[in-house]
Each structure stands twice: as structure tokens, then as C-alpha cells.
Amino acid sequence: MRIFACSDLHVDHQPNWKWIQDLEPGSHTEEALIVAGDISTDLTQLTRCLQHLTGVFSHVFYCPGNHEMWLNTTEGFNTSVEKFDRILGICAQLGVQTEAQRLDDVWVVPLFSWYDDSLIGADDVINRKVLGDCWVDYHLCKFPESVASPAKYFADRNSYAVRGDYDAPVVSFSHMMPRRDLMVPQCFLHFTDLPAVAGTHLLEEQIRTIGSQVHVFGHTHMNHVAFLDNCLYVQNSFGYPRERERTGRKPCFRPVWPLNENAC
């Protein structure tokens, strides 16, 4: 079965939503799609997008991103974890997969994730005051007092899937980045504090245990393909329309399985 991947659809932006809407139902019969987070902060729009994608692809896999965890006064959630669990419930109703599943000759394994400081490199300099002022998650996400580390909390929720005995190759995916060398040096970053909020090495540890042949991620909006330590890492972010205008990039679904269809 062919598997395609994308992330950061951000269908709150009309050009992105129109691109999704223009996909013909049934046009990817017997094919699967991985969506590695950040569809929309709005549950109505999130549901609408996932529902449309399930009509296009035979299988849709998804994990929430940080934008889905943003709280507003109209949805009535007390914490971002509460909203996260509601999203998983919506996925179950729509037939969207958020747990590990075997498709023919390959396993697809979603890994929930958040970020911590573990991807800050030795040469990175983080301005905590600027980060605290501008990073929206700090203002719109709220975790229960019992969750001291969101990165560890979500990593622990993957424990059922983190094992080394899969009986077929594994394609895993997460919203957050699993290792620092998937990002350019800090001097080339437009947002220089990004390493502090990009991901967590806890993901890389889980990828190693699982033995993933492919890992799809998102979040940074910097599309990238790299083969590191016997794993192909892929980011295929739609991003914001203004970013695509600046780079000339067009949205697409990238094939990630079988491997011989994916040029490094």
C-alpha cells in the first residue's frame, strides 16, 4: 500500500483549506495518508478537514500538533489535555487512526509529542524573555498541575506502541522534531529561539526502540528529507500561504512508502 505524508495543513488559512477541498473523493483509493499535526486550532474546522480526507484516502492517520492544543473561551475545555482527548474521540468517530496499525506489509505508528529543552544545541543561545513573550503556546495552552513535563507526558502515552517486536517495517510519525540535526544551525533560523520549542529527544529514543525505517514529522515548517542512522526522516509541511509565496513551494502529499518511491 502506498503511504503519503503531510503536516501543518493550517486549514484556518483559506488557500490551504481550498487545496484540501479540491481533492476529489475516492481519488486515492487503496492509499493511506499521514497527517503529522497542526490542522486547525478550531475543532469544527479540524473535523471538517479530517472528514473530507477520509473520503479521499482509504486510511488516514493523524496526531494532534501544538496548534490543536490552543484553548479559547468558546470550546469550554479546562486544559489542553482535555482538548487533546476530545480530538482523539472525534478521530475515533470519523475512522481516523491515532494508534498503531498494520497496513499490508507495513506498520504505521503515531507518536504523540511535545517539546522540551533537549534539542537545544551546545552552540544555541536562547532568549527566554523574547520566547516567553512571543511563543503563543505559552499563552494559549494550559496543562494540568499533574503534568510537570508535557514532553514526558505525551511520550508516556506512547508506551503501548514503543516496542521492538514489530513483525513488519515501521513508518512512524510525530508532530514534533525528534533530533537537533534535522534543523539548520541557529544562525540560519528566522526564529532563532526555535530549538527550545522544536521537539524532544524522547521521540528519537522511541524511534530507535521501534526501529522505524521512516519517520515523518512537522512543526518547524522547514521541509526536509534526511537519512540518519538507518531511518529516513521526512517533513512535508504545507505551512502558511505567506511562507509558500516566499519560497515558491506548492502544497503536495509526499510519498513515503514504499521507500523506493521516495527520492532522498
Automatic annotation (TrEMBL):
Organism domain of life: Eukaryota
InterPro entries documented for this protein: Calcineurin-like_PHP (IPR004843), Metallo-depent_PP-like (IPR029052), Pantetheine_PDE (IPR052963)
Biological source species: Paratrimastix pyriformis
Listed Pfam families: Metallophos
Protein name: Serine/threonine protein phosphatase
Domain (Calcineurin-like phosphoesterase): residue spans on this chain: 1-88
